[in-house]
Inverse folding.
């Protein structure tokens, strides 16, 4: 499994964490998503390396922004 | 209809607003709930004056705190 960490901005509460987790978890091949609210770090475990644009789209769908990437 | 304004603390985003709105809307006799995220003010329209404890319980259930009241 590949673990990749992304930086997300705009999350302010547990609901935000849930929304990001749900959207990123829905990406094909994603096995595990861990979100740290305090730092905005989102660590994603996947079968294969992910296209960052699919992660960006999922984060955007949840209503937040991927930083750089 | 009676309109009463309560002060809620801890809401940080639109999800918080939705959670409080949903819980307070479920109180018997409540017709309308308006939440102002910036100020934390929750204005509730109801058929009859509400028991503040029922509002406090709903806000608590959503995960937030009613200030004084």
């Amino acid at each position: 499994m590949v673990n990749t960490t992304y930086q997300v901005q705009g999350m302010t509460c547990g609901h935000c964490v849930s929304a990001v987790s749900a959207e990123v978890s829905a990406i094909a091949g994603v096995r595990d998503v861990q979100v740290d609210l305090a730092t905005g770090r989102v660590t994603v475990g996947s079968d294969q390396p992910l296209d960052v644009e699919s992660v960006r789209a999922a984060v955007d769908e949840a209503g937040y922004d991927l930083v750089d990437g």
Remarks:
- The mean pLDDT of chain B is 96.
- Helices of chain B lie at 14-25, 52-62.
- Strands of chain B lie at 2-9, 30-36, 41-46, 65-66.
